[in-house]
Amino acid sequence: MNPINKIAMEFLMALSLSYSADTGLPAVNTSELICLAQNTYFESRAESIQGKIATANVVRNRMESRDFPDTYCGVIKQGPVRESWKTKKDPNLPAEKRIYIPRKHRCHFSWYCDGEKDTIWIQYMNGTAIEANATAWRDSVNVALMVMNGQTRDNTGGSLYYYAHNLVYPYWAKEYKTVKVIGNHTFMKP
């Protein structure tokens, strides 16, 4: 996954600071905010606010389940990894310096390991805003802040899984119970 681009990061930080000042709520962990905002953006940028809240709630529901990692980033990045050839070739390299890459198409959230460049383009090179992307990113950051601060109700009925039913029908869908359909996503739980 590519790091968040500078302009989108500045946008995220400004929204986060503004949100904390406006609501009086404490600032959230920036790394966790980035993970949840990116996941919301890449998984549901074309959805309504309720659709974005739903995909973010699934991440939160997973965090609260003992079957998944207990951080937003841990949940989003969960899946098998392989060591980078750059660090694998050095047998004397300490473990903390080794680089691990998610296995392509094996992550829980497809955008994270689909092999595509994950850039949030909110403006063109000449500085002109790309309104739809800027709005989707702003909404994704705001949704992430609301979910992280417990300001939303779980509109998924406790779902731990979802898929974009207009694009795919995953092999695992038949194993779970459909709880709700919001926008282009079907939300499910065991």
Short description:
By secondary structure, the protein is α+β, with helices and mostly antiparallel strands. It is built from 6 helices and 5 strands; from the N terminus they run ααααβαβαβββ.
Ordered list of secondary-structure elements with their pairings:
Blueprint: H1 6-23, H2 30-44, H3 49-64, H4 72-76, E1 81-83, H5 85-88, E2 100-102, H6 131-148, E3 161-164, E4 177-182, E5 185-189
Antiparallel strand pairs: 1-2, 3-5, 4-5
Give a structural overview.
Helix 2 (30-44) crosses helix 3, helix 2 packs across helix 6 and helix 3 runs parallel beside helix 6. Strand 4 and strand 5 form a beta hairpin. By secondary structure, the chain is an alpha+beta fold. The radius of gyration is 17 Å and the shape is globular. Helix content is 40%, strand content 11%. The two termini are 29 Å apart. A three-stranded antiparallel sheet has the order 3-5-4, with helices on one face. The mean pLDDT is 89. It contains six helices and five strands.
